[in-house]
Amino acid sequence: MDNNDVLLKVENLCQYFKMGPTMELKAVDNVSFEVHKGEVFGLVGESGCGKTTTGRSIIKLYDITSGNVYFEGQRICAGIRSYKDAVRAAKAEYRQEAGEVKKLIKEDRKNGVTEVRAEYSERLKNAEEKLHAVMVEQTANIKSAKFDDKYCNKQYAETQMQKVRENFEPQLAALNPESAEYKELEKQFKEELRLAKKDRIMNKMQMIFQDPIASLDPRMTVRDIIAEGLIIRGVRNKKYIDEQVYKMLDLVGLVPEHANRYPHEFSGGQRQRIGIARAIILNPDLIIADEPISALDVSIQAQVINLLNDLRNSLGLTIMFIAHDLSVVKYFSDKIGVMYFGKMVELATSDELFAHPLHPYTKSLLSAIPVPDPDYEKNRKRIVYNPIAEHDYSVDKPVMRDIGNGHLIYCNEAEFERYKAEINS
Known about the structure:
The protein is α/β, with parallel strands linked by helices. Among the domains are: 87-199, no CATH class; 214-282, no CATH class. The protein is 50% helix and 18% strand. It is built from 14 helices and 12 strands. The protein has helices spanning 51-58, 81-110, 118-173, 180-197, 222-233, 238-251, 268-280, 298-315, 326-332, 350-355, 360-367, 374-379, 387-390, 413-424, and strands at 6-18, 24-36, 40-44, 66-71, 74-78, 205-208, 286-290, 318-323, 335-340, 343-349, 399-402, 408-411. An 8-stranded mixed beta sheet has the order 6-7-8-3-9-10-12-11, with helices on both faces. Strands 2-1-4-5 form a 4-stranded antiparallel beta sheet. A hairpin with a 5-residue loop joins strand 1 and strand 2 (24-36). Helix 6 packs across helix 7. The radius of gyration is 27 Å and the shape is flat. It starts with 5 loop residues before the first strand and ends with a helix.
């Protein structure tokens, strides 16, 4: 795909949580991927691997520790840990260099040399210049990251306001200011400008949560739950709000009569449909679906998946689909990322991943997929993944490597050669 089609770009995302004064949990560690417009990106892995944390970090429910998240080319999340680490590393390198030079000067003085050699002064000067350059660069990076993270919504609103002006001003200029048509258009222009001023880039990115009952306010009616996004955005026309609510209910397979009921009056599948309606009412470009079917019965799961598929095609949605079930992800996703212990261990298209799984953890996940065939199930062998036995990263450290056709795998050099031989055999 063309890079211009990239809707979401996640770059070296790290999300660490403090677990006391000195300890921290690396929930997401150096994860990178891209999601193109119109595709479904599946994120799979066992419980606790960091899938949900990745989704919540992207949508700014957490302040990320390090890395960058770009949405439609604009940076919306930026962590500063990596920049601070670079400054600390540069200071440590400078201290080491200065210590070595002082040690040499001390030895010279013991040997009766009182003047400091020119080469020592040159080494100290170079070390100071190198440290200064790193500090200037990383200070600028930290300042830029904080600005983008804080003001991304304001920058987006200004862009939207400019688009409204470019649309209306030429039309207004062509009309007589005293005419009724001009006054009507001017009223519309002011309303559009007011809404654009309150617009936020995060409105274009919505989330469907895992537990449908926990994510819906029990004291709000379905109408209020679904309409809340429009009200927060600044829409005041009650008739328009009601029309949009009824339209969303119809899209997700519910009826207008459901609008005045409360969440406890619905089944699990219906509640999830309400959650989906709430997510799509602001016409987002990206939906992050955080295990939207795991709390539902199997038959209801199929209905919700088909609903998401229909909405994807009719509304042109891009979906990041987080799940445990690889068989569901294969059916629904164009591209799949496999996470283990906070890291992305394999990334490929759906067909490629199922045809040529390379990482031992991916093979373990695939071996756990049940098949509705008693004879096959009797002979199905589970592959147990033991990272200590599978990998030796004591010397040769792993990184994400491209094995071909965009198939990325987390491995060291020796494993990479073995995987290449395996895929070419």
